[in-house]
Design brief:
Helix content: 10-25%
Strand content: 35-45%
Shape: rod-shaped
Radius of gyration: 37 Å
Distance between the termini: 94 Å
Oligomer: single chain
Length: about 180
């Protein structure tokens, strides 16, 4: 009987030990949540490559043919406008007009531009159009774009009777805006 009691006590101890491991050896789990919020505004970025353009017409060289043609073209693809926007956007251009050259002010409209880009050109700016002192939309799109290239080209109209010798300078302002 002592043997039976001893075995019973041994079995009870073993079961108690295993039950303790089962009870105390279980994994404890506690979960919580975290919320991440990112607010993104409407945003855009415009960069200009080869922004400043200069052309010198030479006597007995390029001046006479340019005046006969009624214009001179500046380098193709210059400037190149690089557009990035995360929503609907509009790219516009305007000119300050030409400086005063010995009392003569060349017409602002004598400066023309065309967008040689393949994407999103608007208002027929894929052909030369005169600039003015009011923003004119030259490209737009109803979505986002990343580094979309708009290579442009300037053309300046010439007139034998008006364009006196001198240096003519105009400032062109390009503006990229996101749209509602």
């Amino acid at each position: 009987m002592k043997l039976f009691a001893y075995i019973s006590i041994l079995i009870s101890c073993v079961l108690l030990i295993f039950n303790c491991e089962v009870v105390f050896g279980e994994e404890d789990v506690s979960s919580q949540t975290s919320i991440v919020v990112l607010s993104i505004p409407s945003t855009c970025h415009l960069s200009i490559l080869n922004s400043d353009q200069t052309k010198t017409l030479s006597q007995d060289g390029t001046a006479e043919p340019a005046f006969e043609a009624g214009y001179t073209e500046l380098d193709s693809g210059a400037p190149t406008l690089i557009v990035s926007s995360n929503k609907t956007w509009k790219l516009s251009a305007r000119s300050s007009g030409f400086n005063n050259n010995d009392g003569y002010i060349k017409a602002t409209e004598d400066l023309q531009i065309k967008d040689l880009g393949a994407n999103h050109v608007s208002n027929s700016f894929n052909s030369y159009k005169s600039l003015s002192d009011i923003d004119q939309e030259i490209a737009s799109y109803s979505g986002g774009v990343k580094e979309e290239s708009h290579p442009c080209q300037y053309k300046i109209l010439l007139d034998w009777t008006k364009d006196t010798p001198g240096t003519y300078t105009a400032t062109v302002t390009f503006t990229l805006t996101t749209q509602p």
